[in-house]
Amino acid sequence: MGIKPVVAMIGLGRMGLPMSKNLAKKFQVLTFDKTQKNQMKIAETFAKSDVVVIALPRASDVESVLEGGLNALKPGSLLIDTTTVSTDFAQRVGELALKHKVLAVDAPMSGGQPRAISGKLTFMVGGSSRAFEAAKPILEAMGERIFYAGEKGAGASVKLCNNLMLASQMIAVAEGFALAKKLHLDAASLYEIASNSTAKSWSLNEYPPVPDVGSCTSPANSKFEPGFSASLMLKDLSIARQVAINVDSPTPLADKSAYLYDYMVHRADLGQLDFSAIIQLIQNNYPDL
């Protein structure tokens, strides 16, 4: 690859669009999104790129893109998939890339839209050490913490474990604020104390599910406009639970969390909101929780 490689960003959603803007500060960037008009076809985009970064919602979207573009990638190119997928899927993509003589990493991200905008995402990366070193400068243009998790599939595995923990963590924080309201406690006071006590966590400190406390970028301050939607959290949690079943690892708390996010998405019809809006289920005493 040249000094300034051509990087294609596939997917211009809530995460992909700000990621592409940060990439453009350091690299030549091509973009592809199915909602764009008058754009290059996917194969043409791949053919003109040295690096392809994928940021799509689901494995099926990734599969569709690779079917249309992978054959067009030049040998020695680099494929970075930031989508949250199963371990098996990430490993299959890695094997497929290898057959095409393309370096590949699974590099799911954490931090939500605010950190995508600020270029301060965290990436957890799986792949060969050679592929990781090739991907590092690209990922550093979009994030501030780049972790090597291990061989192909390891990045996906870490992300699934992370989101499995995050799902239950947010519910616990929401329950705490809901209880505080019933006890006539001031939310800002609870935040100030709990965020400096043993309840300290990302869900509380950086992403509180109530407005006017802590981070001004919390979706609670914008009527829960999603940084990470409840429907996507349910998707990730479902993948994580299936992976856990495959390796016989019990997930009793995640099972209950999945029930609540499924309720939020399919029964309360709140799936388009940020996942932190789970507090609305708890505060409004929805039946059968």
TrEMBL record:
UniProtKB keywords: Branched-chain amino acid catabolism, NAD, Oxidoreductase
Catalytic activities: 3-hydroxy-2-methylpropanoate + NAD(+) = 2-methyl-3-oxopropanoate + NADH + H(+)
GO terms (BP aspect): branched-chain amino acid catabolic process
Keyword Heme: no
EC number: 1.1.1.31
Enzyme class of the recorded protein, top EC level: oxidoreductase
An annotated Gene Ontology molecular function: NADP binding
Keyword NAD included in the entry's annotation: yes
Domain 3-hydroxyisobutyrate dehydrogenase-like NAD-binding: 153-282
Pathway(s) it belongs to: Amino-acid degradation; L-valine degradation
Catalytic residues as annotated in Swiss-Prot or TrEMBL: 159
InterPro entries assigned: 3-OH-isobutyrate_DH-rel_CS, 6-PGluconate_DH-like_C_sf, 6PGD_dom2, 6PGDH_NADP-bd, HIBADH-like_NADP-bd, HIBADH-related, NAD(P)-bd_dom_sf
Domain 6-phosphogluconate dehydrogenase NADP-binding: 7-150
Family affiliation: Belongs to the HIBADH-related family. 3-hydroxyisobutyrate dehydrogenase subfamily.
Protein name, UniProt field: 3-hydroxyisobutyrate dehydrogenase
Organism: Aureoumbra lagunensis
